[in-house]
Amino acid sequence: MLLMQLMQKQQSEEPPGKVGVPEEDITDPTNPMAVVRPPASEYLPDGAYELRALEPVGAEVIGLNLRDKPSKETLKTLQDEMSRAGFLVFRNQGILHGDEQVSICEYFGGCEIHSTHGSHPKAPNRHIFRLSNEDEHGINGVGPQWHNDGSFCRAVFSHVGYHMVRCPESGGETEFADLHSAYMALPEDTQAQWRKYTSVNSNSGVLHPMVYEHPISKQTVIYLHLGMTGAVIETDEAGTHRTLNKEEMTALFNAYNTLLQEHCISFKYQSGDLVIIDNLAVAHRASPSAHRRSSGLRILHRTTIKGMINHDPLPETGLEHEIDMNANRGRNPFDNGVWQGGGLGFRWDPNIRMQN
Q1: Ramachandran region of residue 8, left (φ > 0), alpha (ψ -120 to 50) or beta?
Q2: What is the dihedral of CA 235, 332, 153, 225, to 10 degrees?
Q3: In 3D, which of 273, 279, 278, 234 has the Cα closest to residue 252?
Q4: How far is residue 186's CA from residue 167's CA, in Å, rounded to a whole number?
Q5: Which of 103, 98, 100 is nearest to 119 (CA)?
Q6: pLDDT, averaged in runs of 10, over the chain (356 residues)
Q7: What pTM, to 2 d.p., does this model score?
């Protein structure tokens, strides 16, 4: 990761110490939580700022004011790190106006906002999806299951920004799961099996591979929206297609859910944080406390960035990028497996409920 590269590239001169940070925390390469101060060089032309690794996924960026657009070289460095770390949290950004958050998020990925699908009267910008645990202040009850934003699009969103406007007194976390480390933890036979799967979005009918190569990091990653998947198509070695039945779907979704819980962080916000995730490197879900009023008022502004490439089925499947789930009166064109169009797709766990 970038943290180790920066350690190796560190200039021979001793950098100035940081206020409140013990010197051994800065220089000890055996400490996985070490703070690294990049040298002012052509590698990071905007000068020094701090990167702090989070475990097991994510990193903090301290000392970079995103209102002042960084150079192309620094933006590339940050985006590359995001593709491996999963997300970066930019500390101490203050309260961003809606147009400021939109402009900042357009630094990354597809460099164009995909406007939100839901608008709250108090949202400061038509591109801002305003979330809250109180209906008066924002939209509640969103995203309790593992997912990637924009799964209804052929080009799934490249990046997503979360700005914490009002941090609750307790709780309110978002959980982020590392999709590369999750894949690498699978047995080889399961990896091979999941490579045969292609998911169908229950609302749009677009198809996405369950295993793919990340467009930036080139790491192998997994993908499955646990809230809006209407079918999973299996393609065997002969190129024959079938859809998973109810028992197979339930087992797959439970296995995916358990796997991601083993490779995630429950991220606790601070007021003024701007978190930008690589939406193809991590999955996310709201923690139960994010929806509870008893946690204290929570207000979060979300912005979504258009995809950089189409997230299409693997060529060897022979599948197109979209299927009309409502054609032929919604009948499955392959066989008698699960084919659930519209709404929230296949309900793999009927006990999942919103918690307010």
Answers
A1: alpha
A2: -70
A3: 234
A4: 36
A5: 98
A6: 38 30 29 33 52 92 91 92 96 90 95 81 85 83 86 96 88 93 98 98 96 96 96 96 97 98 95 94 88 83 95 96 88 93 86 52
A7: 0.84
